[in-house]
Structures are given as C-alpha cells and as structure tokens.
Write the structure tokens for this entry.
Amino acid sequence: MKQLKESGLNKEQIIEAYKHVLRGRRLDERLWQLTRIGKTSFNISGQGHEVGQVAKALAFEPEKDYFLPYYRDMTACLVWGMTSKDILMGSLAKEDDPSSHGRQMPNHYGSKEHNIVSHSSTVSTQFPLATGVAYGAQLGKKDYVTLTTTGEGSANQGEVQEAMNFAGVKKLPLIFVVENNGYAISVGIKEQYANETMAERGPAYGFPGHRVDGNDFTETYLTFKKVVDDARNGKGPALVELMVSRLTSHSADDDHTIYRSKEELEDMKQKDGLLLFEKQLIEEGYLTRDEMTAIDKELKAEINKATDEAEAMPDPTADTISDQVYAD
Amino acid sequence: MKQLKESGLNKEQIIEAYKHVLRGRRLDERLWQLTRIGKTSFNISGQGHEVGQVAKALAFEPEKDYFLPYYRDMTACLVWGMTSKDILMGSLAKEDDPSSHGRQMPNHYGSKEHNIVSHSSTVSTQFPLATGVAYGAQLGKKDYVTLTTTGEGSANQGEVQEAMNFAGVKKLPLIFVVENNGYAISVGIKEQYANETMAERGPAYGFPGHRVDGNDFTETYLTFKKVVDDARNGKGPALVELMVSRLTSHSADDDHTIYRSKEELEDMKQKDGLLLFEKQLIEEGYLTRDEMTAIDKELKAEINKATDEAEAMPDPTADTISDQVYAD
Amino acid sequence: MTMMTYLEAINKGIEEEMTRDEKVVIFGEDVGGVKGGVFGVTKGLAEKFGDDRCFNTPLTEGQIGGLAVGLGVVGYRAIGEFQFADYILPAVNQLISEASRMRYRTKGDWTAPIVYRTPYGGGVRGGLYHSQSTEKILFGQPGLRIVTPSSPYDAKGLIKAAIRSDDPVLFYEHKRLYRLLKADVPEEDYVVPLDKANVVRQGDDITVIGYGMVLNHALKAAEQLSKEGIEAEVVDVRSLYPLDKETLVEAAKKTGKVLLVTEDNKEGSIMSEIAAIIAEEALFYLDSPIKRLAGPDSPSMPYAISLEREFLVDEEKVLNAMRELAEF
Amino acid sequence: MTMMTYLEAINKGIEEEMTRDEKVVIFGEDVGGVKGGVFGVTKGLAEKFGDDRCFNTPLTEGQIGGLAVGLGVVGYRAIGEFQFADYILPAVNQLISEASRMRYRTKGDWTAPIVYRTPYGGGVRGGLYHSQSTEKILFGQPGLRIVTPSSPYDAKGLIKAAIRSDDPVLFYEHKRLYRLLKADVPEEDYVVPLDKANVVRQGDDITVIGYGMVLNHALKAAEQLSKEGIEAEVVDVRSLYPLDKETLVEAAKKTGKVLLVTEDNKEGSIMSEIAAIIAEEALFYLDSPIKRLAGPDSPSMPYAISLEREFLVDEEKVLNAMRELAEF
Ligand SMILES: Cc1ncc(C[n+]2csc(CCOP(=O)(O)OP(=O)(O)O)c2C)c(N)n1
Ligand SMILES: Cc1ncc(C[n+]2csc(CCOP(=O)(O)OP(=O)(O)O)c2C)c(N)n1
Ligand SMILES: [Mg+2]
Ligand SMILES: [Mg+2]
C-alpha cells in the first residue's frame, strides 16, 4: 500500500478524508438500525466501499463536477456535499429528501444543489445519461467533469457498453467507475464475466482503463486525480475499476451467509478497509487512537442529531401523488 | 496476401470456393436487376464481402453447424446450403421462400433445412440468440459450432456485448463475426467507435479476437479454421473482425455517392475482392481467364433458370395472414 | 392435496416439469446455486437438476431474453427469469422482435417455446422500480402469450401449461401473493389452460373483472357484499393476452354492470382492452357505464407510505366501487 | 404560406426552433452530415447548425435515449431520432425508466425536456420490422407525452411545441405521409398544442376517430359519404398520450355512433383506451356498439404484397366501416 503522504494531500485533508470514511460507516450503521427497528423498510449499504469512494470523490471538484452515482455510493455523495440529514431524510422518505422527496426507495441518492443526478433502481441506466451530461460540457464549453458509477455485475448491461462506446467516440470528459465487490447479489465473479479485469473494457472502447485497490487510499486518489485531470484537459474518458468488499449482505432483503462461507466472511472482516485505513493513519502518524475515538464520538453525535432532525421532518402527503408528473 | 495453397485446400476446393464467390456476385446483380425493374421492392447486398464470406463459411461444417447470419451474408448462406432459387424466392416473397415464406423483406436469410436461423431486421438481436443455440450444444453434448455475424456499426449494440459476455462466461462453442465495411449506412467509422479494431473487444469479454483482411482468402480461411477447431474442442468462443468493402450503396433505398467521394468509390472498385481473387487464381495457376468465363456463363444460366423457377412459384395468399401466430 | 403457498406452487410446478422433460432449463439472476432466486421461487432446483439446467446468468436482461429464444430454436424449453417485472424493460426488444415473432416470421419453421417468469405488482414498499405492472407494455404483441395466476392452484397448473406450451409465454407472478396465499393444491399432474378466463364466483348483480392482488380483494369484498344482499360475479382474467373474450363478454352480459379493476395506471391498462371488447360486443346488455377502478395516472408506485397507499387499489376501494356500481 | 410536404414541415419546424434556441440539439443514426436522415427529415441541419448540434450517433438506440435525458438534465433540449419506430425497442428501458420519470422521481428537481422523433406506420413494403405502430408500447407511461401529426400544418406546429415543451415527448411521424401530403403551411411562428385532439370535420351522423394514414383515409371517405347524405364527424386524436378525453367524449356524444380506426393490431391499440373512455363516460349517449377497425391480431406487417394489403386498413375498408355504422 502506498503511503498517505504520497497522495500529495496535507494532514488536514487526510484527516478530513478519514472523517468522511468514518461518517459513511457510522451513518450506514444508523440506517441498518432504523431498518431493524422498522422505521425504514430497506437499506443497501456501502460498507467496505468507503475508503475507495472517498479517495475517488476527493479527486473531483464537486462544486462544478457532476456525479451520477449508484446505490452504494452514499459515502461518495457525502464527500460531494450531501449531509447525513439529507441521507436520512431519503431513508425515512421525507418530503424534503433531496434525492426524491420520498418517492424513491432509500439509497437512491441525488441532489440538484450538489450536481448529483437522480438515478433509477434499474441498474446502469445512468451510464447513457452520464454521456449526455458530459456532452453538455463540450457543447457549452464548460470545464466540468462527469463521474458515473455502477457495480461489476451491472457493468455487463448493454447500455454500459453503448455509453462507453459513445464516450470514446466523442472523447467526453467522463469518468466511468466500476465498484467491483465480487458479487452481484449472490452471483460471484466467475458467473458474471470471463475477462481478467473490468478495466480491460476501457481500451476496447478506445480509452484507458485502470484497476485500483479501493483500500489503498493513495493509489486510488492518484489514479482518479490523473484521469480527472486528463478528462478536464480534453484527453477524453477513462474507466476505473475499484476493487472493494461488500461487508454486508446485498441489502436488507438478503442474507449472504447462505452463499458465502464463514471463512470468506471472517477473512473479509479482517481486511475491512476502515480498519486498514485507521492502522495506516496511526502508523504514518496522522492520528492517534484517542483522536480517532474523539472523532467517532463527534460523528455519532452529528448523526444522532441528524436522525432526530430528519425524523421530525414532514412526510409527503397523499394529495401530492400526482404532482410533477408533467411540467404544467 | 497469402497464397491459396497455404490454405490446405486442394484445387477442386479452391475452384469450388471461386464458384461460390462468383455465384454470390452474379446472384446479387440479379437481385438489383429485379429491384430496378420493380419485380422486387428492395435489395441490400453483400458485394465486396463475398470472398471473406466464402472463406469464413468453408471453415464450418454446414451439415451440423448453426448459422445466425445478417442481411449481407447471402454468399455465406449459399455456401451453407441455400440455393439461388431459395434466395430469389425470398426476394420475390414467394410462399416457398425458406427464409420467411414471403413474410420478411428480401435478404433476411434463414433455412430450417440448413441450420440457418431466421433473423429480424432489428440489427444484432441474433447475438443473444446465438448464445442460446450454442449453449444447446453444451447441454446436449453435441459438437456443433455456432456462427453469428453482424456489421461493425451494429456491433455497438448493447445486446452484442451482453451476448459476448455470456459466451465468455460459459466458454460457448460460438464464433462471433463483425463484417467491417467501414460504414453504417452513411456513418463512417470515426463516428461509430474509437477503438483501433473491433477485434479488441474479444479479449474484453475473455476470449480471442482476430482481425483479418476479408479479401485474403487464405488468411481468412485459416483464421476461421483455427477458431472453429478451438470452439469445437471446448476452448470457447472467438471474435473475428472481417475487413471488407461495401461496393454498393447501403441498400436500394440509399445513394452512397452523396456521402462517399468519387475517389473513394473508384479506389474501392479497383480493390474489388472478386477481381483480386480472380487475379490470384490466375497467377497461382488455378484457373485461366477462359475457364472463368465458362464458369461465369454456367452460373448465369443457373441463375436465369432459378429466376424463372422462382418467379413461377406461388405467392402467399391473403387468407394465410393469421397462420402460425400461435402453435395451435 | 398439500397446503402450499402461491410461491411453493410455482416452485413445485417447475420441479415437476423439469423432472418430466429434461429439455426444460431455467436461468436468471440469482436463480441458480443455493440462493434460488431473490424470492426463493427456484430454490432447490440447481441442487436437484444440476448447474447446467438451473443456472445464474450475468446481470443482463436482454441476454436472458435472447438466450431463451436461441435455446428454443434448438429444441429446449427455456424458463428465463426477470428478477422484477420492472427489469423486463431492457429485454423488451428481444421479447417483441424475437420471441414473439420467431414462429410467425418463419411460418412455423422455427419456434420459440419459452416461459419468461417475473414478479410484478405493488404494495411491498418497492418504490417506483419494484412495484410496476409492466404487462401492459408487452400486451398486444401477437405471438406472445401473457398469463398470471391469482391462486396457488392456478399457479401450479398454469406454470406447467406454460412450460409445455410451444408458444412464448410471459408468466407474471404477483409478488404480494407469493406468501400471502396458501391453499390446498393437488399433488397430481394437472394443467390450467393458458387461454381461459376463470369465473371464480357466481353472482347476478354486478360483474367484477380483475387479476392478481385486486382479484383477491374483489373476492373478499364480494363475500362482504353478499351479506348485504348483493351478489357479484367475479372473473379472474388469467389469460392476459390473448384475452378470453368469450368468457369476459358472457360475464358482462350476465349482470349488465361491469367493474374492471387493476392496480396499474388507469390509461393503457389491460382493463381498457377489456372495456373496449365489452363496448363492442355487449353494449346493449349494459345497464351502467363500464367502470374502471385503477391507480392514478402517475408513475407507479412512490415509496413513501402515504403515497404508496394513495396509489394502491386496496380492498376498501374495491368494496366501495362494487357497492356503488350495485347501487347504480 | 408555402406549399410544404409533411416531411418538409417537420424539417422547417426543427430548423426554426434550432435557430430560436441554441440549446436545441439533434442526433441519431445518419441524422448528421450530408445524409440528413434516411428519409431526409434532418437535411441541411448539420450544415446550418454545425456538427456539434446536429450529429450522427453510433448504432445504439439505448444510448440515443439516455443521451437525450442527460442533455436534458443539464439544460439542453435534445431531439433524438430513432431511425424507425420499430427500433425504439432497444431504448424502451431508457424511455420508461429514465425519460418519463426524471421529473416525477425528483418532484421536479431534475427534468428531461426531450423530443424523440421516429417514423412509424405501414404500407411501404417494410415487412415486419419497418412498418410497426409501436406507440402502444409506450402508451400509458405517465410523465411521457406521445403526439403525432396527421397534416403538414400540424407537423410543423406540433414539432415546435414538442421542442419547447419541458416534458419528454415522443413524436411519431407517419412515414407514408412524409411525401404524400403537401399543403399550405404558414411561414410565421405558430405552435399546435400537445394535449388537444382536433375535430377536423364536422358531421352529425357518425363519429370517426383516428390518426395518421387512416385519418386521411377517413377524411376522404367522409367526402364520399357526404355525397350519399351521410355526414361524418372526424377527429384527429393527435395527442396520443395523455389523451384529450374531453374532445373525444364530446365527439362521441355528438353522434352516438363511434368508429375507431387504427392501422395497428386490434387488441391493445390506443383505440382500445379511447373505447374504454367513451364506454365509461358517454355510455348512455351511444346508439351503437363502439366499433373498432384495425389490423388483424398478427404481427405487423408481412412483406408479400398480398399479405401487406390484407393487413392494411385502407380507404375502402374505412369507407365500408363508416357506411355500415351509419346504417346501423
Ligand atoms: C436492470 C436490473 N436488473 C436487476 C436488478 C436487481 N438487482 C439490484 S442490485 C443487483 C446486483 C448488482 O450487482 P453489482 O452490479 O455487482 O453491484 P453491487 O450491488 O455488488 O454493488 C441486482 C441483480 C436491477 N436493479 N436492475
Ligand atoms: C436496431 C436497429 N437500428 C437501426 C436499424 C437501421 N439500420 C439498418 S442497417 C443499418 C446500418 C448497419 O451498419 P453495419 O452494422 O455497419 O452493417 P452494414 O450494413 O455496413 O453491413 C441501420 C442503421 C436497424 N435495422 N436496427
Ligand atoms: Mg458487485
Ligand atoms: Mg458496416
């Protein structure tokens, strides 16, 4: 694993990155809690993806760059500007939920304010959309870069290939990400695709592809930095395959102990990216265990407050069922 | 260009191959004629693809191998067992047309008798079908190989990638072909894809990809021979990009002089694969010009006869409009 | 007789047919292995019939659609699962262009005996993309059949008939009925016809026509109304396409007062076709306008509980509409 | 006023809107360059507005669908062309899951102002895959509008309104009308509303409702019948979805005798919805069953001339049905 200082980020930035990672974890734990006690009916979580997502998102400029995420990208959305309360309002289906105003299931992140474009549950439909957003930059001579993501299973959808093909043709300022956690629900990689890496598919559409270890913060950050800079400078799209783990079941409706062995699950826990990142932070002198404990406390308080605030927000009312079907 | 004898085919076989090529050309000329005089309302032609198609098809065993062609594959279908009369009955929409019994437009080749599976006009839908046909070989422990083809423009359809992905996963005995003639109607390659070759897409799905010059009979034949043998021996699928020329307008409804320069058209005519093949046959001592003239005469007579016979066949009657919508 | 849920009845029906005919194969996302489907409909099949006959596919619905057709043309009886009816959309091209037309476009030379299974329907907090009734999208494609069971008995008999049919059959399963309905189901071999509606309750006062969850609401409401002296004729459409016009028209004529119930949007639902048929063939038997009770014309079905409830056609809404019609 | 064909009117309307608003862009297969579409609808636009605003896409309809949505969310007004209405099928997922729901699922935060143009309809020897009326497949998707002009005047006014609309609009163009209809069209700026049916002829005896080619048949037949003393009210549906119920119901009430005409199959066509609306809202005004004149329920539309003729609803069939209804 590369040292954190090789990232070129300063101490403050690295600690900020850690806070994002930990916030992602703690907030997701809260969402599971709310699901268990029946306050929300569903959760699908990015535990195990957080370090890679933070390193990815930090390479962009969220004030102007566009993001078309998928359902595990909560932590990346937090970096992009969404708040814990925003996320909670989504899971609790509140009227002010910026993702969908309570109309979509939990974990369908979006925010007009933060350039995070709404996505459907139908996997990978965001890929063609992202080409439109990115082509808008070329048309309007704007220098924003667009990011879109999906899982390695969903990356086999035909629309993904069509979008990558178009991005290659137009040399769009567009970064495609495949978050590869080895599973599409219960389906392992061997049943999903036969190529060595998903990254190979970039060149097949005329642009670079990179595979990075999503638990290696510095490698991930630097890889994204490079492809984002290139995209912003007119050098066209790139595909990044982010190797991550799915620490949880697929979703609240799944039980992965059925199809994953005890050993696999235990092994994965040992290699939890959060723990590895914390070890690295300590070893490389960024934070002490006590400082981490303090940050954790602070974040838990923040999330508790956000939960209270979100719960107190109004629900959508039945009479709005037909609002905004059409423009008029 | 490789010598013909390097193909390993004997003289008789090479001459047979030439007859297929020339039959393809002459028959297509007849179809254009019938279109011009209004006896059929449409033609879309494989002129410029013939040599590659014959070399391709000869590497298979049509008595048992399956073929899911696309609309320019007439010559390959002739090698596979269809007759000039079969093709003509299709263009004239006759009841006994083996492709569709007059229900589909001309050039939608198919034949139950010859294992040529019917295709739609919607491009590339045959790719997922071909995976099913090929999976049937694995399930039934049969040693047939399946061939499916499309154009380089149509190869960008999402379903093509989905089919290739599946074929990789299951290591299917399936050969994918992209007949690359540089155009999708008026759209040139630069606007279609940004990768160097279509062949690169094979490895992106976990199997080999080869690009061959479709006018190089021996190279094409040997390449197919190898991938067909491999597929039959359980080594899985392959993708072959066949470089060819579209000598005609896209179809009877198109006029390519609008979007292709005079020079380009002239140059292409010079490099007409049929002429190159004839030159090679003479130079390498397979046939004399006189012998070719005799073959041509023979083929023209065959096609004239086939035309007369096809024209004399009955049309579908209006009262069959609802036949075979359902099984019962 | 064994007590079985709707889900178990489908599972049993498939198991019986796979035992009976080794040409039957089943596949889809998470269908194979130990998971046996996200709802568990295919549980045990991989173990019993092997990973060749029951297997996971990559996450590619177009491919699932086409794979089934290809298997069909070489003599297999494929059962392809779409994990949710919402995710049939990427396969619409294969279903309409290929599956539904293979027979017609070859006048029976090639056929595609297929069952496409998929869970549909709302009321499960599935939000906009896990609640839809997508059957209307594929309704009216000659060559395709659409059926749906509304009871455990029909579930088993109908899936068996669908598997044996030489037509492509779209088999819709209401996901709320999976575990809600439990009833005695014969252990013997029986099939339920694919082309017959079912009069599930006799009555002289009003006619209610529906399928799925709302049909069960109507049955309960009918019992309630019976106590009030109103007797409803309740018809389960069952064969959604082609419709069993005769039974539907007879039932309309019998009482002269028709209520059509669907949980889909009002405009464009299958109930509209039934209304059109009755208005064309039984107009002078009617004593009241043909009433349709349906969801609002907004996209199905928001997640927030208030909105989901507002959208859903529940038992109370059905009861009220029936009473109102009786009083007309 | 200038004499214009239906095709020229669409071209002019697009040109005017692209001049008026530089956010309007247009793309599709063969749409750009000198070809300007396979029917020539976009001729001259690339030259006039540049290759950035009028361009060719790769042969990927899903991508065309999604590209338009992505451009929409960043403020462009995309016009995506599907080369034939038959080839909208690969894009159905994007149209339903994304375009039609972007507004609703974000309660208006993100919107997708789009026009999807496509030529539909039979009678051109297009066979099974170049003749279809696919509008029924996308009918009934709240959030999406479907319109179609049946005259040059409406063609220009309706395309302009569609481009200015903030809703996604599916714009169907009858390919037989392209060059068949020629009429005076104002040079001034005008729009035709997207949500209004049009009573194109007044009459007291029977009401005929249709759109496209068959509407033009009905108009001619009405003139013929007028000579026989039968006066038909003829209504152009124009707004296929959502329907202009008010105008349709009024027209039905006016004469009490309704004939619905479509060139689509009978079951599942948009005419069925219109029948349902009338049967629900105007039943007691009716003096005869609601008649539907439509194609047979076999896959649209075989190529052989005898079969195509049998399938087609031509002027004679319309005339006979109108006369029969008048005599009822
Ligand atoms: C088109 C479509 N098909 C199926 C599903 C159901 N589904 C939701 S997530 C999922 C697995 C996705 O796996 P992957 O892409 O690897 O992402 P991960 O969940 O592992 O991050 C499936 C099958 C869906 N949402 N959309
Ligand atoms: C899904 C679909 N979209 C569009 C078309 C219209 N179309 C027919 S052929 C063609 C171009 C195909 O080009 P290519 O794949 O390169 O094959 P070629 O004709 O050059 O052999 C197009 C756009 C179609 N038939 N199907
Ligand atoms: Mg995954
Ligand atoms: Mg080509």
About this structure: Chain C has two domains: 2-185, 198-327. The first helix of chain C runs from residue 6 to 20. The pocket of magnesium ion (ligand 4) is lined by residues B 151-153, 181, 183-184 (CB under 6 Å). Chain C touches chain D through 50 residues (CB under 8 Å).
